[in-house]
Amino acid sequence: MGKARVTVVDIAKAAGVSKSTVSLVLQGSSLVNDVTRTKVSAVMRDLGYVYNRGAANLRQAGANSKIIGVVVNDLTNGFFAELAVGVDMVVQSAGFVQFLSNTSESLDRQREVIASMREHGISGLILSPARGTKAADLKPLVSAGIPVVVAVRNVPGAKVSAIVSDNHDGVFAAVRHLVSLGHRRIAFLGGFGDTAVFKERLDGYRDAIAGCQLPADETLIVDAAPSRAGGLEAIGQALMIADKPTAAICFNDAVAFGACDGLRARGIEPGKDFALVGFDDVIEAKTAVPALTTVSVDPQGMGRRGAQLLLKQISAGKPEPETIVSSVRLVVRESCGASREGAPPAAPQAV
Amino acid sequence: MGKARVTVVDIAKAAGVSKSTVSLVLQGSSLVNDVTRTKVSAVMRDLGYVYNRGAANLRQAGANSKIIGVVVNDLTNGFFAELAVGVDMVVQSAGFVQFLSNTSESLDRQREVIASMREHGISGLILSPARGTKAADLKPLVSAGIPVVVAVRNVPGAKVSAIVSDNHDGVFAAVRHLVSLGHRRIAFLGGFGDTAVFKERLDGYRDAIAGCQLPADETLIVDAAPSRAGGLEAIGQALMIADKPTAAICFNDAVAFGACDGLRARGIEPGKDFALVGFDDVIEAKTAVPALTTVSVDPQGMGRRGAQLLLKQISAGKPEPETIVSSVRLVVRESCGASREGAPPAAPQAV
DNA sequence: CCTAATATTTGGACCGTTCCAAATTTGGTA
DNA sequence: TACCAAATTTGGAACGGTCCAAATATTAGG
């Protein structure tokens, strides 16, 4: 039950040196004599000294607070939790601690949280922005010279670094895979048309369709909420058109699951009568029935690389905005009809 | 791009008052005249002032740093991510921020992280302890008078508050449910015998068996790693015994999934030929085939209540250790053989 | 044994805010 | 108009470190 906090002067007194010397020991300076150092260290241990980083930061003029802020839009979503873990790994081993907050897609929450982090003097921020985040929301940070890395979703117009996955490439590969299985009528389901991510994935789809000499058919593109419910709705709409698709690329895995539901409700078996590909490779993708073929994005790796980028910018004086696109990998499972055991692909014309 | 940081004296100067007055405004004191307050506030806005909480904490002697630490053993696990989100909710709306770190079950990591948080002057800690955490690990915190709430797993001997789920009750209810479906030979699979959680769940099992006048048979209890692999192994062992069980309570959902694998490998269909109940209600439980009957524990609710408890202790002077047991709910799905549609239960004697 | 170097230690100012006691202003009343 | 109480405002000392220039100790060379 230590009454008062132990401070450097306490241990200076006890060790018979000045507080300056204690401070020197604290920062591992080579200026201090070894015997002094050991004596001081011993006293620190004995008295149960705990370093007060807040006090230190006060004098050391902001920059190196050893705190980095992490703000995610939905920690409940395994994808973002993994991202945070990836960040934590590198941040922690670089001797920083992370301030983590969850915004639940609320812009107000996000604003509050970022403000609070500023007050605590974070030396950098990794942000997976809530939907609708504008460049203006990040303005105060960047004009204060605090490095910011946005992850997953880009913030148009903001002069900050970003780490995003290769949306174009992922969908491109998925389409080509479906084409190689014999499909010619491939739909693109789900996602909100106003987001950058949607545009990128859709461009990947269009480019692949064009690259395979297939006719572009805008009716095959149906946008909807990027959720299970949205997928259900989207597949319904896709099956209404005259020349029905035999396969679909889904905006993300949740949409793909919804599409499964919708297919089954119509007596169509996904993976057998209809091919489906998702995006993200969420945790349930591999255990679902049928196991979902999807584009895997390694959120933890993104977190790690994002954190590395941030740390680099922190140590460099002026942060030079930089964008990393994280590459992506098609994971072939059952829902696209190409079983790994080499079973013959489902006949693509039947629906 | 503001060169130097704006401080209270800057705004005092600009507003033509003293820094004391500015400080008063900052803390919303009623001592300051309204016209002064508005003028000062305006200047703060104009100059882009940001409050320096570190400096404030320095003077305000520790207690109210507005930071609470959250340490979880595995953020990748949806269960703990939900827990953290629950904590964040109440912590955030109480004007605190959370320092979150992940230990990946490493005691060293945990030690480092807790030390680092102390240096940052957290006013309380919520800890989901890594396996093997000893009371001694928390000693420094409690003797410094910092409130600690451990969640999910208890730390034996530590004089701290705890919030744990009602393990006894959950398993008790599960066993009674199986008995009501006609089962008489019910196994208990998985879990490490040396953990408190295991003991509690096993006690629930034993008490329910006894309460239903069924013979206690220790060979029906097989411990194994609390993982999918452990479940696979455990079910294999359980099926070796002469008078085979027709149902099993699994230590957690992962074990239950492993048990499913094991049953299928022997041509036994879980949910039809054999009843299985899990614990935790992880996210895959409801989408698995068959959907898993399990004991649901609402991690987010636990997080919220744990945080409330912590905040209470922070505002109270001396933390009085207190234990909350969070109640638990049996979610009946398909794996126990009792379909919600009222189909007749599987014949319990056949295996 | 003295002196210049080199190695080590030290006093005090300072970081941005809060707190306290004292000073100043304001308002009401005799 | 003088005087007292209430309402506001204010200077300066903390808080617990770091930093710098200057002081002191030690060592080597002559």
From TrEMBL, chains A, B:
Taxonomically, which superkingdom?
A: Bacteria
User: Quick check: keyword Repressor in the entry?
Assistant: yes
InterPro entries annotated for this entry? HTH_LacI, LacI/GalR-like_sensor, Lambda_DNA-bd_dom_sf, Peripla_BP_I
Q: Which Pfam families match?
A: LacI, Peripla_BP_3
The cross-references to Gene3D superfamilies, in alphabetical order and at most eight, read: 3.40.50.2300, lambda repressor-like DNA-binding domains
Residue intervals of the HTH lacI-type domain: 6-60
Name of the protein: LacI family transcriptional regulator
Q: Which organism is it from?
A: Xaviernesmea oryzae
